[in-house]
Amino acid sequence: MDRGALTISIDLELAWGIWDKPSNDYFGRCAELETHIVESLLSMFDRHGVTATWAFVGRLLDRAPSFPVKTDHGEKIWYAPHLIDSIREARTEQELGSHSFEHVYFGTIDRQAARADLDAARAVHARHGIEFRSFVFPRNQVAHVDLLGEVGLRVFRSVDVGWFMAAGRLGPAAGMAANLLDKMLAVPPSVVEARRRGGTVELPSSTLLLGRNGLRRLVRPSAVVVKHALGLRRRAQRGACSISGSIRRTSTTRRSANSACSSASWSSRRACGTRARSTLSR
Ligand SMILES: [Zn+2]
Q1: Structural domain boundaries enclosing 87
Q2: Is the pLDDT of residue 66 over 70?
Q3: Separation of 233 CA from ligand 1 center, angstroms?
Q4: Count of the separate structural domains present in the chain
């Protein structure tokens, strides 16, 4: 029987997420909040028996000889094996996926550099006995997709689908405003289909769960709950169709989340065609 699936994926990156756009405020929140956020999420997932995919930057398990930006926060915003340990030791099984080795932007690098980064990420997973099967492109720059299958990756999350994406063509500000408006409205996220692409499966994202910092506080938690309940109902009504979503930062903590970006996806196992065990396919 075909079954629907809700996928939650989280981009775990700490300071690597903005190495090219340094922000002292952001780095400070990484240092202060990241561990709390990860532990809060794991606790919540345990309470509800939820498995998520934590796509982590390989450097969190492989200390860089020097860090891209000099800060006062020490190495803990660049190197955090304890976070990976927490995820591996969670009572409810969690999947560790990849968010690249050094958070490089695949849309801006050549094939050789992309392959080198993927190989390095794969080596980190292998050294630590972690499966290498799910991938999230840094900053959602989907490129060199054929390489994913070559290094053994089975599934990747791709960009959001929804009316608000069209607004992005008018400029970054319009895109951000439309995205925020979409999250404020209790309307269901888009229904999407997982599809085979090269040697892997692409799972688009339906919606982003925003952290409650800055203007994002305008997004009421009740609207988020209604939106996702409607999404599940719509998926159920459409049988084998899939809904996939992307949650940037999580709104599950009272304090604003910082460097953990998350993504949720509803998908059909048949459409994914992979063993459904991860955020990207569960
Ligand atoms: Zn990222």
Answers
A1: 4-272
A2: yes
A3: 30
A4: 1
